[in-house]
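Hi P.,

Sorry for the delay on this. The queue was packed all week, but I finally got your sequence through. Input first:
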Amino acid sequence: MFTIERPELSLSEITERLEVSKPTAHRYATALRQAGLLRQADGVYALGPRVVELASAALAGLGVINVARPHLERLGADTAQTAVLSVWDGEAPVVVRVHDAPTGRMIRIVVTTGSRLPRESAQGLVFAAFLEPENHDPRLEKVRRERVAYLPDVVEGIAALAAPVFQGEEIVATIALVGTIAGIASGPRTATARTLRDAATALSLELGHVVEEGA
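Then the structure:
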C-alpha cells in the first residue's frame, strides 16, 4: 500500500484498503509497529526502519545469488556434499540457493530454498561473529579466527559447516556444506574446511572483497 507517491497513510485509509474492520486494522498496524516494519507519527503510518534492513539484505542477496551458482556447483562436486548459500534477513539466516549433493548417494539431504535458519545454526554463528564484532562470546571469537563454524547436530546424524562471504568489507552471505557427520569433518584444518573456505574466499573476491596478505 505504501509507495513513493504515498509514503504515509492514516488508519482509516489502511482500514479501507485492507477491507477489514478498524479494530482489526489497528491490531495489524500495532503488530507491524512492534516488529519495526511500520512507524507512527502525527496520526499517520509510514514504513519503519526494519524495511530498510530487509531491503539491504534482499539487494545484497540478489547480488550474491547471481554470482554464487558456479561456486556452489564446484564446491558440491569437490566435496560430494550439499552446498547452501544463505543471506541475513535482519534477524536470522535465510537459504537463497541450494546445490544438492551428487545423485546416487544412499542418503539424500533436502534443504529448501526460503528456509529460515535458527540463529544457533552454523550459518547463524558465522553471521553473528561478523555482524557483532563487539560480541566476545568464545564461540564467535573462534569463528572469527578460523573463518568457519561447525554444528554437529543440525538434526540427528546431520552436520553443517559454514564460512563467511564478504562484499567489500561487509559480510553478505554464508556458504555451508550440509551432510552426514561422517561426511562433514569438524576441524578447521580438515580438507573439507579448507575447500569450503577457498570457495567462500573465491566468491568474496568476485564480489569485491580484498583479502589481506597472509589471511
